[in-house]
Every structure is written in C-alpha cells, then in structure tokens.
C-alpha cells in the first residue's frame, strides 16, 4: 500500500514538469521548449493507521504488529532493542543513538508487550528496561520490501525522469527560489528528478552562484577555487578557459568524488557561438546497455585513470581511477565519469583490453552525440543553469572571442549530500513531512 502511495506521488510530480506547469510568477514568460516550474506538488497523504494488536512471536524472535487496516509488520527483537527511543538509549538533543553496541544483547528475548491508550507499543525487556514506540515511527520502518522501497525513495528520490533533445527544461525564477520555500523545494525536486533546472533573473554581477549555494548550505571548494570564472584566458590551465569547443563531458572525474551539482551563471555571452549542450547520461547509459551490452559491461567495470595538474586556488597534481559508467551493487547507474580532456594517457588495463575499451568508449560517445539525444540552449546574461554533474554530460560550441565583450560565466560546485539535506528540510517545512 505504501509503495502505491509513493508511486502516485511520484507520477504526479513528473506530470508537473511534463504536462501542466504553470507560471509561478507573472514576470515569467514561457518559451518554446521550456516549462516553468510549478510549486512542488503535495505528497499524497499517507494514512497512519493505529495498532490493532501487537504479538510476540518468540520462535522467530520478532514482534508482529497488526495495523488497523489489517496489514501486518514484523520487527526483530534485536532491532527494537537497538532502537529504543528512551532518554537512556537515545540522546534526544541529537536524535542519535547513545546505546553502545557493547551493551546490546543481539540475542535478547522479550518479556512483555502492551499497547498504551494512545496506541504506543510498550515493550518490557528481560532486564526490566522499557521501550515505547510510536505507531507512526514503527510503520515508517516496516521491513516489508514495499515499505522499504517506499522509504528509500522518500529519502533519496532515486527515480529519475529520462529525456532527450525534446526536453522541456524546468524553469524557475532566481529570486523566487532564493526567497520562497515552495519555489526552492520545486527547484531541488526537479533538479533531482530531471537533472537540470534553468533559473532566470539573476543579477549581472559575480557572486550569484555563491548566493544560491548559501540557499542550500555551502559550496564545494576545489582546486579551481570557491567559484570559478569561465573565460578565454591566456595560458589556460583548463580547456574550459579557452574559446574552443568542449565536447560532452562531466566535470572533474579527476577527483574520486566528483562534484555532484554544478551551477553556471551567464554574466556575458559571446556574440557568435558559445551555445550550450547537455545530454542525460543516465538515459544514454541505459541506451548503451540495451544496444551494446558488451560496451556497457566494459565501461561499467573498467577503471580508467584521470589526471589534472596545474595551479589555480593552489598548485595541484590530481590522479583518480573512475569507471566511466558507475553502477551500484544492483547494476543501477549511479554516476557518469567522463571528460576526454583529463582522461589520462596512463591506462592501467591489460594490453588485450585496450582495443575493446576504445571501441566501447567510441560507441558510448556516438550514442550521446546523436542529435535526437542532445538538448541545446543558449545562455543569456542573467541566466543561471543548475544541473546534476553525476548524471548530465555538458558541452559548448566554440565561440568567437572578443576582448571588448568577453564571454563570461561564473561557476560553482556543490555536493548531493548538502543538496538533498536542504531538499528534505524544505519538504518538512513546506509539508510538515519527514
Ligand atoms: Zn532505552
């Protein structure tokens, strides 16, 4: 039941981006191919049924809770004792466990279970310690596969909406996102789900990416500084700091933990060229898995060396080993790590794997460069694009450099842990929902 509720809430959220976005500010003008973000949709209300009865299943060493709606949940004794919420076992001010594992009997029995008047589950343990659990707290932590899946989706929002060149890019107003919690929540939800959100109306001064990162928490310092200026620079220490074309890439795979989120603010655009391009890397990886499973297998298992040396915030000599397609234990794509400029000439693979690696990479790049997969846009001064650097590959067309009016973008990085933290807090503030 929980998973059905979660699925409905999710489908509703997707529809806002795809079909029925509405203007959240009178100043916003919808443009073809863009979709203004509506306020975040209300999550479906989850009924929180009370407890009908609780029963000790000694032979399984589990507590069975039967809910008012007739469904049942099972909780192992060891887990219940470990998560006792009393002031002795939990430091209330930090909501953190103070019970030590050395003091936990993982083979504990259970002496007694009772229901209090307000439906709390009250347990007495063999050492006379007492624990009380709120029904809602227990229900959220039910161990059924459906409930676990719903809880994980709620916490991590890992369901993504794939797109191609037909993307209706979610849009929002920069100042509104800064000052309105609902707008900020809608922004971050779309950033997670779609991977890119376009903000309009930022002022034409440096410092706007830093201001936006403070809305979340803090930005990610790298060797390129707290924020960085994308401009045509003499003796550039990065290919981005030229006027040349940048092929589709993710930023900073030379780090073992590349930045999760990227902000780019356009202060000045070139008169000719400099258009931006993005592709949905997770979508491309799934296409590759379907069309060329062998290539997918190689790119998701082979560790590739990346390197970055130079001097900026300070001097640096960075080396990493990353898989171009990162997958988790269940084979789900979790991150794309690909930047042809910083892919090292050192290739730490056996000789007979070199050619298959090149063929696989070439196939992947061919898939991502298909016109039907690439979404192109042109940033104008005051535009600020925010995107998932673990998922999207981005590039830009070459441009004609003009010293009179120098193309200038300011960028900053953040990490997903901080972004998701703000998203959860906003969701709680806006919907009282945790
Ligand atoms: Zn306790």
UniProtKB/TrEMBL annotation:
Regions crossing the membrane: none
Residue ranges annotated for the Gamma-butyrobetaine hydroxylase-like N-terminal domain, each copy included: 58-132
GO biological process, one term: carnitine biosynthetic process
Function: Catalyzes the formation of L-carnitine from gamma-butyrobetaine.
InterPro entries: AlphaKG_dependent_hydroxylases (IPR050411), GBBH-like (IPR012775), GBBH-like_N (IPR010376), GBBH-like_N_sf (IPR038492), TauD-like_sf (IPR042098), TauD/TfdA-like (IPR003819)
Entry similarity comment: Belongs to the gamma-BBH/TMLD family.
Protein name according to UniProt: gamma-butyrobetaine dioxygenase
Entry cofactors: L-ascorbate; Fe(2+)
Gene3D superfamilies, A to Z: 3.30.2020.30, Clavaminate synthase-like (3.60.130.10)
Gene Ontology molecular functions: gamma-butyrobetaine dioxygenase activity; iron ion binding
Keyword Metal-binding set for record: yes
PANTHER family assigned to the protein according to its UniProt record, in alphabetical order: GAMMA-BUTYROBETAINE DIOXYGENASE, GAMMA-BUTYROBETAINE HYDROXYLASE-RELATED
E.C. number(s) listed in UniProt: 1.14.11.1
All copies of domain TauD/TfdA-like, residue ranges: 173-413
GO cellular component, one term: mitochondrion
Keyword field contains Oxidoreductase: yes
């Amino acid at each position: 039941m929980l998973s059905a509720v979660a699925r409905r809430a999710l489908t509703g959220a997707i529809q806002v981006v795809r079909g029925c976005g509405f203007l959240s500010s009178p100043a916003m003008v919808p443009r073809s191919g863009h979709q203004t973000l509506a306020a975040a949709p209300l999550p479906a209300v989850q009924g929180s049924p009370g407890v009908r009865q609780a029963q000790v299943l000694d032979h399984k060493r589990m507590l069975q809770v039967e809910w008012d709606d007739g469904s049942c949940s099972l909780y192992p004794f060891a887990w219940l004792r470990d998560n006792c919420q009393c002031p002795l076992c939990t430091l209330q001010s930090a909501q953190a466990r103070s019970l030590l594992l050395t003091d936990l009997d993982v083979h504990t029995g259970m002496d007694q279970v009772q229901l209090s008047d307000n439906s709390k589950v009250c347990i007495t343990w063999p050492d006379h310690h007492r624990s009380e659990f709120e029904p809602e707290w227990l229900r959220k932590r039910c161990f059924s596969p459906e409930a676990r899946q719903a809880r994980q989706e709620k916490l991590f929002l890992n369901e993504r909406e794939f797109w191609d060149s037909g993307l209706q890019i979610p849009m929002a107003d920069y100042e509104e996102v800064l000052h309105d919690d609902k707008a900020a929540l809608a922004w971050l939800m779309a950033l997670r789900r779609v991977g890119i959100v376009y903000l309009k109306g930022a002022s034409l001064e440096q410092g706007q990416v830093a201001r936006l990162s403070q809305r979340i928490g803090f930005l990610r310092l790298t060797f390129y500084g707290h924020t960085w200026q994308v401009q045509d620079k003499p003796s550039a220490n990065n290919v981005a700091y030229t006027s040349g074309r940048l092929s589709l890439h993710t930023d900073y795979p030379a780090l073992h933990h590349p930045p999760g989120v990227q902000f780019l603010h356009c202060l000045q655009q070139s008169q000719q060229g400099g258009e931006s391009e993005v592709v949905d890397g997770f979508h491309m990886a799934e296409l590759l898995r379907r069309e060329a499973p062998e290539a997918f297998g190689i790119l998701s298992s082979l560790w590739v060396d990346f390197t970055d040396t130079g001097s900026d915030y300070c001097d640096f000599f960075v080396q990493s080993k990353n898989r171009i397609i990162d997958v988790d234990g269940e084979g789900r794509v979790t991150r794309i790590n690909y930047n042809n400029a910083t892919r090292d000439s050192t290739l730490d693979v056996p000789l007979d794997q070199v050619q298959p690696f090149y063929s696989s990479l070439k196939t992947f790049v061919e898939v991502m460069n298909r016109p039907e997969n690439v979404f192109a846009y042109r940033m104008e001064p005051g535009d600020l694009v925010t995107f998932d650097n673990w998922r999207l590959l981005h590039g830009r067309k070459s441009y004609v450099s003009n010293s009179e009016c120098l193309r200038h973008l300011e960028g900053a990085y953040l990490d997903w842990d901080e972004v998701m933290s703000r998203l959860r807090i906003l969701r709680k503030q806006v919907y009282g929902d945790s």
